[in-house]
Every structure is written in structure tokens, then in C-alpha cells.
From TrEMBL:
Subcellular location: Cytoplasm
GO terms under biological process: D-xylose metabolic process; UDP-D-xylose biosynthetic process
Protein name per Swiss-Prot or TrEMBL: NAD-dependent dehydratase
Cofactor(s) this protein cannot do without: NAD(+)
Superkingdom, natural source: Bacteria
Cross-referenced Pfam families: Epimerase
Matching PANTHER family: UDP-GLUCURONIC ACID DECARBOXYLASE 1 (PTHR43078:SF6), UDP-GLUCURONIC ACID DECARBOXYLASE-RELATED (PTHR43078)
Keywords associated with the record: Cytoplasm, Decarboxylase, Lyase, NAD
Entry's Gene Ontology cellular component terms: cytoplasm
Keyword Lyase: yes
CDD domains named in the record: UGD_SDR_e
SUPFAM superfamilies in the cross-refs: NAD(P)-binding Rossmann-fold domains
């Protein structure tokens, strides 16, 4: 993989920074671009001195003129709190960002991977979710800026593929967690760990019976890398996630046990359109990428808790 020039958009974010780590270690020339909306220079500070790593401030809603062989398009806030803060900008980032990166890919004949999401399935009425399920998404709700933006980005990917023969790869990422998540980003894993470490109440939305499937970041990045280098005729979409399914109450209990915290649970209203369940069918990833997650929730939470301890000085 030497001499491959790779662009990572959103590279200073949680997933993007781990992806940059792997690509730099593999010898790629990595150009990381980010507007630092939810990401931070700190996440990639350790890479700044490397000869094959470059960081550039750029907003993907504006065109970018660079020469690259591969594009990983991750730029987009992922936490509901952040993507709902400026919903118009969220849609612009997904849609204009995809158009700009696809335009770049077309001009330089690069292969492009889109970080899509399990949110394209909305509040699903089938379980587990397979890639051929079209989803149950509210087009006008408070999550729509993210869900519909990501759905439109998938549409653009496939139209560029059909219309311009662009090499595309679409991965649908299920809830992923690990070190470098933002402590205040409002996602459930970071919220529960930070609350437990500070001895604050653990905020359960609704009754806590809704489920999510949590993938450790290292497993996710391995899946993305395998997808990017898979044969050109395999374009996806492909689910990447851990099929272990947990209620939010179960997650809270696990976090309390692993942190040794005595925090109490407190119940808050369930946000609008909050999906009741999420569980990937990963048969396609297993068959076409030889990929399956290797890290259990308990094993992945341990280094994540250690990270938050260091961030909070706990
Ligand atoms: P994150 O918020 O940590 O990272 C997103 C990065 O994109 C940040 O660094 C942010 O500053 C940057 N960004 C946002 N808008 C931008 C813009 N207009 N131009 C340039 N950069 C911009 O979130 P993450 O968890 O690392 O998610 C990365 C990608 O993976 C996102 O596209 C997200 O939708 C997708 N995803 C993540 C998860 C998950 O559980 N972590 C699940 C499904 C999909
Ligand atoms: N959640 C919760 N307490 C929190 C944060 C989130 O109970 O402090 C719930 C939320 O309502 C959702 C689930 O945890 O049902 C996952 O939320 P997150 O924001 O992490 O991601 P989502 O999968 O909803 O995009």
C-alpha cells in the first residue's frame, strides 16, 4: 500500500483520527481535512510530526482541489446533540460534502468510501437489519437532517457510480465507541461513562428498554479498511457493527460495574424519533470482507473508561 495518497475528511474526529493512525502506520500519504466542528487537533496531534501526515482546515461544503488515490468521507457530526444543533449545516455537510468529494473523486479518478450509518434504517420494523432493508425514516423529524442527509449521500454515491463509473464503497456504521469520543458529545457510551466517573446520575432516556449494538472502534476501522481495498465490483452498502444487542439499562449496569461507581439511575423523556432497536446483520461483511468484530462490549469499555479517566483526571 506504499505511495497511496489518501484523503480522510473529518479526520480529526473520533473515528477519523483512528483511521488516520492506521493509514499512517501502513505507509500511506495521509491528508486529513477537518473544520474542527466536533473534532479536534488534539486527536491527531501525535501524527503531526510524521512525514506522511498532513492536517488541513477545510469545510467539505466547499470544493477541494487536491490529488489523491483514495477518499474516506467521514466529515459529519455524528452525535444527535451535535447534528441537531445546526440541522441545516448537517444536511449541507452530508449532501454538499458528498457532491464535492464525489466531484473530486471523479476528476482525479479516486476510489471513494462513504461513512454511512445505521440511521438510514430509521426506527426499523425488521430485526436484525440487513442491507436490503429500505428503512423506516421520518423525513421531517429532528433526526431527519442526519438520516436523510446520509441517505441522499448514498444516492449520490450510487448515481456517480452508475453515471460516471466511479469506484465507490458504502459502509453503514452502527453505534461505535472507544477512546477519543468527545466527553460532552451526548452519545450514550460517553454520557454514561462520564456520569459514572463523576458520581453523577446516569441519564436513561425513556424506560431504557431501547436497544443498540455497540462496536469497538478498532473493529470498525478494520472493517472500513477491508471495504476500501475490496474488489471494485463490491460497492456495498455493507453493515459494519457488532451484533451484540444491549438495552440502555444493561449498558448502564455494565458501566457502573466496570467503573465501580455508585451513581444512581435517573429517567428522562425519550427524545423524538429515538429508534427502539438497532442490530446489524453482518453476514455480508463476513462473506465479502472476511470481517467480524472481535472485541466484546465489556472488553471495549475497559480502555474507553481508562481514556475518559485520563481526560477527566479522575
Ligand atoms: P465526530 O463528530 O467525532 O467526527 C466527525 C468529524 O467531521 C469531526 O472531526 C468534525 O469536526 C468533522 N466535520 C463536521 N462537519 C464538517 C465539515 N463541514 N467539513 C469538514 N469536517 C467536518 O464523529 P465520528 O463518530 O467520528 O463519526 C465519523 C463519521 O462516521 C460520520 O460521518 C458519522 O456520520 C459516521 N458514523 C459514526 C458512527 C459512530 O457511532 N461513531 C455511527 C454511524 C456513522
Ligand atoms: N441515551 C440515554 N441516555 C443518554 C444518552 C442517550 O438513554 O444520556 C439513549 C438514547 O435515547 C438512544 C441510545 O441511548 O436510545 C443511543 O443514543 P446515542 O445518542 O448514543 O446514539 P443513537 O443511536 O440514538 O444515534
Amino acid at each position: 500500500m506504499d505511495d497511496v495518497s489518501t484523503l480522510v475528511t473529518g479526520g480529526a474526529g473520533f473515528l477519523g483520527s483512528h483511521l488516520c493512525d492506521r493509514l499512517v502506520a501502513a505507509g500511506h500519504d495521509v491528508l486529513c481535512i477537518d473544520n474542527f466542528y466536533t473534532g479536534s487537533r488534539r486527536n491527531v496531534a501525535h501524527l503531526l510530526g510524521k512525514p506522511n501526515f498532513e492536517l488541513q482546515r477545510h469545510d467539505v461544503t466547499f470544493p477541494l482541489y487536491v490529488e489523491v488515490d483514495r477518499i474516506f468521507n467521514l466529515a459529519c457530526p455524528a452525535s444527535p446533540v451535535h447534528y441537531q444543533y445546526d440541522p441545516v449545516q448537517t444536511t449541507k455537510t452530508s449532501v454538499h460534502g458528498a457532491i464535492n468529494m464525489l466531484g473530486l473523486a471523479k476528476r482525479v479518478k479516486a476510489r471513494m468510501l462513504q461513512a454511512s450509518t445505521s440511521e438510514v434504517y430509521g426506527d426499523p420494523d425488521v430485526k436484525p437489519q440487513r442491507e436490503d432493508y429500505w428503512g423506516r425514516v421520518n423525513p421531517i423529524g429532528i433526526r431527519s437532517c442526519y438520516d436523510e442527509g446520509k441517505r441522499c449521500a448514498e444516492t449520490l454515491m450510487f448515481d456517480y457510480h452508475r453515471q460516471h463509473a466511479l469506484e465507490i464503497k458504502v459502509v453503514r456504521i452502527f453505534n461505535t465507541y472507544g477512546p477519543r469520543m468527545h466527553p460532552n458529545d451526548g452519545r450514550v457510551v460517553s454520557n454514561f461513562i462520564v456520569q459514572a466517573l463523576k458520581g453523577e446520575e446516569i441519564t436513561i432516556y425513556g424506560e431504557g428498554t431501547q436497544t443498540r449494538s455497540f462496536c469497538y472502534v478498532d473493529d470498525l476501522i478494520e472493517g472500513m479498511l477491508r471495504m476500501m481495498e475490496s474488489p471494485a465490483d463490491f460497492v456495498g452498502p455493507v453493515n459494519i457493527g457488532n451484533p451484540g444487542e444491549f438495552t440502555m439499562l444493561e449498558l448502564a449496569e455494565l458501566v457502573l460495574r466496570l467503573t465501580g461507581s455508585r451513581s444512581k439511575l435517573t429517567f428522562r423523556p425519550l427524545p423524538a424519533d429515538d429508534p427502539k432497536q438497532r442490530c446489524p446483520d453482518i453476514g455480508l461483511a463476513a462473506e465479502r470482507l472476511g470481517w467480524a468484530p472481535t472485541v466484546s462490549l465489556e472488553d471495549g469499555l475497559k480502555p474507553t473508561i481508562a481514556y475518559f479517566k485520563s481526560v477527566l483526571g479522575a
